[in-house]
Amino acid sequence: GAVVSQHPSWVICKSGTSVKIECRSLDFQATTMFWYRQFPKQSLMLMATSNEGSKATYEQGVEKDKFLINHASLTLSTLTVTSAHPEDSSFYICSATAARDRVDQPQHFGDGTRLSIL
Amino acid sequence: AQSVTQPDIHITVSEGASLELRCNYSYGATPYLFWYVQSPGQGLQLLLKYFSGDTLVQGIKGFEAEFKRSQSSFNLRKPSVHWSDAAEYFCAGAVVRTTDSWGKLQFGAGTQVVVTP
Fold first, then answer.
1. Scanning A60, B20, B59, B107, which has the fewest C-beta atoms within 10 Å of its C-beta?
2. Residue B103 reports pLDDT greater than 70
3. B49 φ, ψ to 5°?
4. pLDDT tens for each residue of A8-48
5. Are strands B56-58 and B3-5 parallel, antiparallel or unpaired?
6. Which residue in B42, B100, B109 is closest to A43 by CB distance?
């Protein structure tokens, strides 16, 4: 149980384009989803927290207009990297939790999306 | 400041030998603590978690961790390592907010485990 699917797993695109990454909870209702960014050989850095039906809360230093997050349903959150540039290349990971139902629910992670901007 | 620290960046262990990964935490209250494993190019898989109660926690894949309040530690152990255990291991902590929703999950820097034949 507690499966989180992230799509695509790998994307390459030209500089200036926008890229959308999807994060789906397959077998539970994800009231809260998190988006992380991970640089090579480094830990995960939280970018934003999104609650279903609410605006995302961004961490300090994360550009809201660059990284658009939508959490329109209890099973889907999307991260759109707008006007992507090479410095946005990274490994993006989402996680989901059914925190409102059970406080002891841990975060369940997707397999990540490797984004490469040429 | 609230934080989780993994002192060892890299550990090499022989297959069949025991493994211990260190994790120290700094929180005002007892946090919820987790160990995750990440294989190359993949997301994180939860190995085990500690919320309260028995301080020795059993997880998947033969891993266990012991919560020691006096040492502010939550070290991960495995008695006999298999080649498939080679991966990056992350310790993480979180404090539950009063609204019964999750606070931020803070990750340690990670420990890379290499398993030699």
1. A60
2. no
3. -145, 155
4. 999 999 999 999 999 999 988 888 899 999 988 788 899 99
5. unpaired
6. B109
For residue B83, give the 3-state DSSP assignment. helix
Cis peptide before A8, with omega less than 30 degrees from 0? yes
Cα distance between residue B114 and residue B88, in whole Å: 9
Per residue in A75-99, pLDDT (tens digit) is 999 999 999 999 999 999 999 988 6
Match 């397959």 to its residue by tokens: A26
| Confidence band, pLDDT 50/70/90 cuts, at residue B59 | very high
Q: Which residues of chain A lie closer than 8 angstroms to B105, CB-CB?
A: 34, 46, 95, 107
Place of tokens 């990056």: B88
Q: How far apart are the first and last CA of chain A?
A: 37
Residues from chain B that touch A109, judged by Cβ atoms under 8 A, are 36, 43-46
Q: What is the mean pLDDT of chain B?
A: 90
* Inter-chain CB proximity A4 and B46 less than 8 Å: no
Task: Tell which residue, A14, A33, A13, A12, has the closest CA to residue A22.
Answer: A33
A51 to chain B: nearest residue by CA?
B101
User: Given CB atoms, is A100 within the 8 Å cutoff of chain B?
Assistant: yes
Q: Please give the residue of chain B at the shortest CA–CA distance from A100.
A: B101
CA distance A40 to A113: 13
The answer to whether the Cβ–Cβ distance between B44 and A106 falls below 8 Å is: no
Q: Rg of chain A's alpha carbons, rounded to an integer?
A: 14
